[in-house]
Every structure is written in C-alpha cells, then in structure tokens.
Amino acid sequence: MLKVGVLGAGHLGKIHLRLLQQSSKYNLVGFFDPSEENAKKVSEEFGYHRFDSVEELINNVEVVDIVTPTLSHFECAKLAIEKGCHIFIEKPITNTVLEAEAIRTLASQKHVRGQVGHVERFNPAFTAVRDMISSPMFIETHRLAEFNPRGTDVPVVLDLMIHDIDIILSVVNSPVKSVHASGVAVISETPDIANARIEFENGCVANLTASRISMKNMRKSRFFQKDAYISIDFLEKTSEVVRMKDVPEQEDEFAMILQNAEGEKKQIYFDNPTVNSNNAILDELESFAEAIVNEETPIVSLKQGANALRVAQQIIDCFNKQKELI
Q1: I need a labelling partner for 257 at 20 to 30 A (CA). Which of 62, 223, 251, 293 fits?
Q2: For 174-214, what is each residue's pLDDT tens digit?
Q3: Residue ranges of the GFO/IDH/MocA-like oxidoreductase domain (predicted)?
Q4: Distance of CA 49 to the CA centre of its chain
C-alpha cells in the first residue's frame, strides 16, 4: 500500500479522503488544510490525522493528492516533487501553462509520476465506447450546469469546459490547428457561458459549449466519424453507437436502410453498450496507484493535463481579445 496524504479538505478534498481511506491500494496517512477551523472540524468529525503544514505532510508520505485551489497547485506540486513524492493533482493542472510545463520538467528530473484529475476519462459511459471512437471528424459537446457560487472565481472554461477539452484531445490524434471562441459574463466577473471551435490539422472540428447559468444540468458529447455516430451522456451514464454498414444481399424488410444520391445503400445498426457502474474518482485514484507500482505512464499524464490547459488558455485568450474590441 502506498502512503498518501491529501492537501486540501474542502468539498472535493473530503471525498478524496473518504475514498483513499476505503482503497486497498493506499494507506491514508493524513491531510493538511490551511483553514484552522475547517481542518479541526474535518479531523474531529472523520478522525483523519491532521498535519500542521504542507511540508510535514510531504515528509511523511509517498504520494501527495493535491485538492487545493488552482492558484496553489504549482507550489504544492513543486514541494512534493522535490521531496520525491508522486503527485495526483486536480484539474486544471496549474494556473498557467508555464507552471504546468515546469511541473512536467521537474517530475521528469526527479523520476516521479503525476496524474491529473480529469475524472470524466473514468466515466463508465465514456470507457464503454472509448475504443469505438476512431478518427472522429466532427465533435459536439454540451456541458451545462445550474448556477453554483462555488467555482465562479475562474472562467467557465477552466471550471467546466476543460473536461470536454481533455476528452477531445484524448481521442483526436492530431495537433490543434486553430481555436476560436466567445464568452459572456452574466453573473460573474469572468464568462459564465462560452462556445469554442477547435480545428485540428487532420480536418477534425470540435464545437464545445459550456454554461454555469443553465436551468438544467447537461453533459453530452457526440462523435461523428466514417460510418458511425457515437453519443455519450456523461451525466446519465449512457452511451449509444449508431453504425452504417453495407446492406447485406438478403435485405431485412424491417431494417432501417438509407440510400444516398449515388444509389449506395447503407443499413443502420443501433447499439447501446453495457455501461458498468463505478466510482470514477476512486477509479482514477487507484489507476494512479497502479501506474506507480507498475512504473507505467498514468492514464491522464501531466503532459495531457498541460495540453488541456494550453487549449483552455487559447480559448480564454479569445475572450480577452473579444473584450478589447468592446
């Protein structure tokens, strides 16, 4: 079992603490939270050992789970890596791309592993069809949430859209060619609703919409590729695959058949893959433990976390240019 400590005991931090304590792959040593009041409350209520400083926690563990506000990710990760600790770091990886690259470099120099908490990679609706997504050429995502004051200190891109950015980058095997975006600040000081268009060098286009001021929650993605359409509902945890294949010699009179302008016929097949229930946060934490023990690259590496942040920053830069024109 790997000795692990958690930095940050807020809403998500408490979830991580509970799951790490349950896990058979980790030995939860304790946590640190800079809020005296919150740290005392969490320690007394759940019985977790409380450290008095970040340094004290790092000196007593092998793995540091960083669940602090984004602004402190870089310093926490840097301290942990310099002490030879592996790091699990919540998304976004850091506050700036420069910080993310510095963390990547340092981790490589110190021969430690790092994973970024892009939890949707472990959503069972995605994992059920991940291997079926091959060379998508058009992608459409909608991630809409009801208003919640928690998290409004950052743009909706870093709060919500970055989940879909990471998913898209994980399935499109091509460099980003261009990014166009617009956003509107309705309630917050930063955009609350945004749309982005990402074009890849292989011709793939992704259209992303994110909002944190919607009347209902939605987390859907659609992938269009040659002879197939794949739909994922991350919220309801369901997937659907629609395939088009050549019509067999013996046509089924009840089959759904389409004919194009050239006279070619295609038969449509519907498939709803089995989606196995899971705890995505526990899965991502335990997958990181396996990567450490087996000396493998984590499923969501520091490099991938940095790439997602880089695209997110390009989208935010579009917002800033838009603001200058007003």
Answers
A1: 223
A2: 999 999 999 988 888 888 999 999 999 999 999 999 999 99
A3: 156-216
A4: 29
Task: For residue 278, count other CB atoms closer than 10 A to its CB.
Answer: 13
Whether pTM exceeds 0.85? yes
Separation of alpha carbons 39 and 71, rounded Å: 20
Query: Domain 122-275+312-325 has what CATH class?
Result: alpha beta
Amino acid in the structure at residue 96: T
Residues 6+ apart with CB under 8 A from 276: 124, 128
pLDDT tens for residues 107-137? 999 999 999 999 999 999 999 999 999 999 9
CA distance 100 to 95: 8
Q: How far apart are CA 40 and CA 48, in angstroms?
A: 10
2-112 and 122-275+312-325, same CATH topology: no
Domain ranges of the chain: 2-112, 122-275+312-325
For 154, the token pair is 């950052």
∠ CA 206-117-306 to the nearest 5 degrees? 60
Would you say 21 and 71 are in contact if contact means Cβ atoms under 8 Å apart? no
Provide the 10 A C-beta neighbour count for residue 88.
28
Asked whether the beta carbons of 46 and 30 are under 8 A apart, the reply is no
Strands 193-200 and 205-211: antiparallel
Structure tokens at 196: 């982005």
Distance (Å, rounded) from C-alpha 141 to C-alpha 285? 26
Which is it for the CA torsion 251, 253, 254, 259, positive or negative? positive
